[in-house]
Predict the 3D structure of the following.
Amino acid sequence: MTPEIAIIDPNTLSCMGLESLLEEIIPQAVVRAFRSFEQLTDDTPDMYVHYFVAAQIYFEHTSFFLERKHRTIVLTNGSNPPLLKEILTLDIFQDEQKLIKDILYLHRMGHQYRHLPTLSRPNPADNGHELTSREIEVLILVTSGLINKEIADKLNISLTTVISHRKNITEKLGIKSVAGLTIYAVVQGYLTL
């Protein structure tokens, strides 16, 4: 069964960014964005395993979301109002690395309630695309925030070799963004947050 995730937020850019990030983290999920609560209810609202909902919409329709408390994640702007103390929240105004860390934390929290789908990607080794030990080293350094030249200096290899390793990693994993590579590295145990 394909997990379905709803994003309910009138901010188009927030929806697009979160949708893209969730599709990368949970590639088997279907992510749908709704600009209003009414659009959600016109759909089939109870089919979703998670609701990422803007705080304003959450407060306007609290009774609906309280019934789905363990499937609801309220999108906040950095401050958590006291009314949200017992609700899962996600600060969407933070940098990408912290956002990924928080989504992974929500993943762990979800195991308590068995609602969050797994964030892991299929093991590349299952497809004959296992990373070499050098590619893993490069992956770890990329996800640690180093640029190509710094990686080359640290590993005592040429800049061209680093670029080649990065290309191989991207092709083998099918992941292009540093955020996606970070999530992969954490899930595979190569990196801890």
Residues 111-128 have pLDDT under 50 and may be disordered. Residues 4-113 form a domain with the Rossmann fold fold (CATH 3.40.50.2300). The beta strands are 4-8, 30-34, 50-54, 72-76, 88-91.
